What does this fold into?
Amino acid sequence: MTQTLKARDAKDVENAVQWALGNEKTLEIIGHGSKRAIGRPLQVDMTLDLSGLAGVTLYEPEELVLSARAGTPLAEIEMLLAARGQRLAFEPMDCAALFGAPVGRGTIAGTVAANLSGPRRPSAGAARDHLLGFTAVSGRGEVFKSGGRVVKNVTGYDLCKLMAGSWGTLAALTEVTVKTLPKPETEATVVLSGLDDRAGVAAMVAAMGSSCDVCGAAHLPAATAARFPMGEAVGGGRSLTALRLEGVAPAVAQRLAALVAALRPHGEPTTVDDMVSRRLWAAIRDVTAFASNRGSADVPLWRISTAPASGHELVATVARAVEAQALYDWGGGLIWLLVPDAPAAAAGAVRAAVGTLGGHATLIRAPAALRSSIEPFEPQPAGLAALTKRVKQGFDPKSVLNPSRMWAGV
It folds into this structure.
């Protein structure tokens, strides 16, 4: 069993990386481990646990800024923000349901490192767009900072964009600063039932292109809706296409009426109120239709980004080769694809479809053997792969941190 080093503060992280560097050891960087099974299985000498680096160090609601140590649970931050009528607008998902883990254990640094963004991504931006600054320890054992406490920070390189989505392969984050935003007064959701994938995507594209300021658009085919905790109550056992609106109550009511009118050519819209809408979108955000406690503990699950208009065609292409169940988010631009049989053949089908129709695919959940035999993250073209290796070399020349988690040799 790999020995674990539990850091108490940022200095412990610096010392641990310097020790590993000096002794030619490798480290796995984790918080509470809620996303530990994503990516290639690691072969490391030690685990560096950052969960002890917890606590909010700065919160200025009037300035819309919050700083927290790396291991601070996301749930704790969201509770603090909600008490002041604010939120993290990029709506990060909780991965717990997908891996059968306790909910609420994801950390702020893990969220940033994975660049997790929920259904509001098309309108509010990704996690990287809300990261104002950070402090970290590179694979060289050096402490460095980037950004600050304001949105318009133009000093030096924009390393925030680089760290978000690097999965701990470049540096161990010890503290992050994020932008907060006011929480809307209310929300409502328009639902269409019974549409096939093509019609569902068309309805979402129409809604997102309207003047109604839609901030969430998802489609669950009938088979997926049947696995959905609220599928029967909201969709009546049929497919479910959901469009969300947020804001002050009078504006939401006005936009809701306009959206219902705009969607009538696509079907008969119904509406759900604030409370049901919040539960619905939390379940979509966390992909609970494909949760491990719904018979999917080890079933491969892919996360595919593509052009919204071609999402249904991509799913159909894969489904002609292997059995597949889909959940469409981001107006059709994000597809969660469950492939219960023939995982190796499914991987080939997914990669081929993405190669033809465009986009990129990440294997989010799968047995370790499959994650070892294929590249879980989208393979990079030669030029980009060479650039990725040079960046890794610059931050972590001896591959001390999460070696080969994203791509072999990186």
Notes: The chain has a mean pLDDT of 93. The first strand starts at residue 3 and ends at 6.
